[in-house]
Amino acid sequence: MGMPAATDTRYWTPEDVWALPDDGNRYECIDGALLVTPSPSPPHQTVLVELLGHLMPFTKASGIGRVLPSPADIRLEATNIVQPDLFVAPLVDGRSVIKDWREVSSLLLAVEVLSPSTARYDRGLKRRYYQRGKVAEYWIVDLEARLVERWRAGEERPEVVTDVLVWLPLGASEALEIDVAALFAVALDG
């Protein structure tokens, strides 16, 4: 994935972002900063598809929420908009169908896959935003290092996972276990 760039010094709002042309880039604004990210790489997308393959049956079986990939305009705060690569939104009024992004006001999980150029934003600005927004877990997937940084709300340091990623969200009776080495092998080694 290319460099998310702060492209302007003005204070950006979600309304400003929605007024931008549809040019194939992903636009986000956090605390007034505009982040622009071009299309992701094939390994980035492959690891997302693999994660989706683990998360989708788990969220359906446990009935905790809905897993979706971006693009999506997620507003945990009125003045910010983010597009996590992958996220799990809790059920809204007991239903898993999301008809409008405005229905999503909290996340059980946000996932970002790093590229060398996005690491600074994903580990800094976005992490602080997700933690401030009380996102229960934020996973930073580092393809190069073949690890997952698991951040929980309120924690100052991540748990670094290289073997088995175990996720037990509130409301689930069983945990999801993801073999991290196998995940990276599929995405990077074929």
Could you please describe the fold and organization of this structure?
The chain is α+β, with helices and mostly antiparallel strands. The protein has one domain: tt1808, chain A, CATH 3.90.1570.10. It has 5 helices and 11 strands, in the order E-H-E-E-H-E-E-E-H-H-E-E-E-E-E-H. The chain has helices at 14-18, 42-62, 119-123, 125-132, 180-189, and strands spanning 5-6, 26-30, 33-37, 65-69, 86-90, 109-113, 137-142, 147-152, 159-161, 164-167, 176-179. Strand 10 (164-167) and strand 11 (176-179) form a beta hairpin. The mean pLDDT is 88.
Provide the fold topology.
Blueprint: E1 5-6, H1 14-18, E2 26-30, E3 33-37, H2 42-62, E4 65-69, E5 86-90, E6 109-113, H3 119-123, H4 125-132, E7 137-142, E8 147-152, E9 159-161, E10 164-167, E11 176-179, H5 180-189
Parallel strand pairs: 6-7
Antiparallel strand pairs: 1-3, 2-3, 4-5, 5-6, 7-8, 8-9, 10-11
Helix pairs in contact: 2-5
What is the tally of beta strands? 11
Structural class designation: alpha+beta
Tertiary shape: globular
Mean pLDDT: 88
The biggest beta sheet reads: 6 strands, mixed
Q: What is the helix tally?
A: 5
Concise structural overview:
This protein has one domain: tt1808, chain A (Alpha-Beta Complex), CATH 3.90.1570. 26% of the residues lie in helices and 26% in strands. It has helices at 14-18, 42-62, 119-123, 125-132, 180-189; strands spanning 5-6, 26-30, 33-37, 65-69, 86-90, 109-113, 137-142, 147-152, 159-161, 164-167, 176-179.
